Protein 1
Amino acid sequence: MPVLTTARLELRPPVASDFAANMAIVSHEETARYLAAHKGPADHFARFCRNAGSWMLYGYGAFTVRLRSEKEIIGNCGVFHTLRGLGPDFDDQPEAGWILRHDQVGRGLAREAMEAVLEWFGGEHGGRRIVCMIEPGNEPSIRLAGKLGFTPMREAKLPEGGAVRLFERLPR
């Protein structure tokens, strides 16, 4: 399993003991406000397991992120495989996503992590189209998507009813 390092970060595939820290991150009100489909521990556990399955079945998934100088988990960022019921232009595609702990936002860490992930993904899996979804109103993530080469596709509703904006990143 890959371990990526950047100037400030270490990224590694998740392990079972990461669940509680990740649950705490997505449960914080500052973070949860942008996670339209997050519905509590059972839902998060299913998502956590889906990510582990992505690693097993496809050879890629979200990485657990920590600062290199610390052991504490500060988020997860990566490219994973999922089906969301959003249509053939989005489902069954590699999907990018980034979530950082509320006190780590605004430091350029998500960009640093995702640039490393996208470079690794391209090297391991070739030039492929990657999609992402962002809740309307999450302007920092929308700006980051643009910096990472994602362009708007369309707006959509999740099967649960939450609104999202869909983006794609074409192979370079």
Protein 2
Amino acid sequence: MADPDEGGLPIRMLHDRVLVDLENDAGERRSGGGILIPATVTMGRRLAWAEVVSIGSSVRVVKVGDRVLFDPEDRAEVELHSRSYVLLRERDIHAVAAERLSEGHTGLYL
């Protein structure tokens, strides 16, 4: 178990559970074309990005520090040290952000 005094979380995840820190998307954002989208606009079913802060012993694909994509409708929230986190199962994660390609590689498999 992590020591809360050293900045760790006082929790140990079990089985296939993943604890993530939700990225703050509450403010205004811009579209790809540069159009300003106000925070009051409601979007349809939109997936959310979050950073993995803790994983259970049965988690196989995701590791701490990964940026993951999930459906915010299928979540459970928990508060630790006055901060909100989201608890997911590994199977509820749709994607893991890939590392950027290093300079000089095209990313094409020829």
Protein 3
Amino acid sequence: MFFKMFKWTALLLSIVIVVTNANDIKHTEIIEHLFNKNDLKTLKNVRPNFEQNKTVNVNVTMYVMDIGLTSPDSMNFMIDFYFRQMWYDPRLMFENDFENIDYVVMTSKQSESIWLPDTFISTAKQLDTHVQKPFSDGNRFIRIKSNGQVFYSHRLTAIVNCANRIGYFPSDHPVCKLEIESYGFSASDILYKWIDDSVLIDSSPPSLIGFKIIKNNSDDNKNDHNVIEHKEERIKLSTGSYSRLIAKIHLERKCGYFLFHIYLPSIMLVILSWMSLCIDPIERSTARILIGIFTSLGILIIMFGVTTTISRPNEYSLTAIDIYVFVCMLMIFISFISSVSRCPHGDNGKSYQLEQGQIVRQHSMNLYSRIVMPMIFILFNISYWLTLWLAK
């Protein structure tokens, strides 16, 4: 029984190998036929429909697999994606010469003999095509259909600066913008077009730490949250008009880390500094001074952490978190000065007895400070958080 099963398995495997080899031979024959019927120099260097003066329509799709920061102190994002282009080249049609063959697949070396669009990403600071010669020709794939449609797919990794509204950090919303266009062909030669609902992104990229993807598409009828905002436009330069595709990835920074490590401790220190205003300046003057010193040191440590230790863009600009910590430090400093100035001491550091009128004025000033300073801080917080919320 086992011998019969082994014999049939071997027979089926042999048939598959024979059919595969036959298809490979057939595909090689078709590619040789295409090369023989065309001038190779023209096929490689001259775009399709050049003699008819027709525009080549290049349809583009994109799928983003991964995105993430290249370093914590920069706004440069690494974007790893599949980039696919489709166009028609009448010179590569073979439907009338070979029957029952729908398409052929070209090797990387064979693809060097046909025309390919000179597409580039103008906003990329660095672009990796994953070509590792001599071991590999890169992650790319070229398929030619019998009607002359060319499907060109390859994997790219682009480094793009996504800085946007750094002044609102950590409530800034980075926008990674990819501008795709031809390097040398004008819009009369190549016209780029997005294929609808084909500009997608992975819902949970593995390298996206500290951010989340937000949907920002002008079409409200699209319910696919994986669709990237995309559009087509024409730009006019000194050398002519060019077709351009734009894809925007909108990100939102996760603020939980900053809330629990910066904002809440700063608020607690400000509230603690007010406690010194509730202590009798005559009988407990030392306690008032100690609270002021403790809160002042605490806010200085937080400010040092904001400028040196937390992951923030390395930009020489004042940000929202800097303003918040500075205001908290200012409130604590005012409380500390108020506490020290209202602690009566003699020339030798010994406390002395105040007159009844002075004591009344001290208590009235403390009461005034306990009301005014919290009101100022509450109004500042309302305006601060409202500004960040409206800026979204």
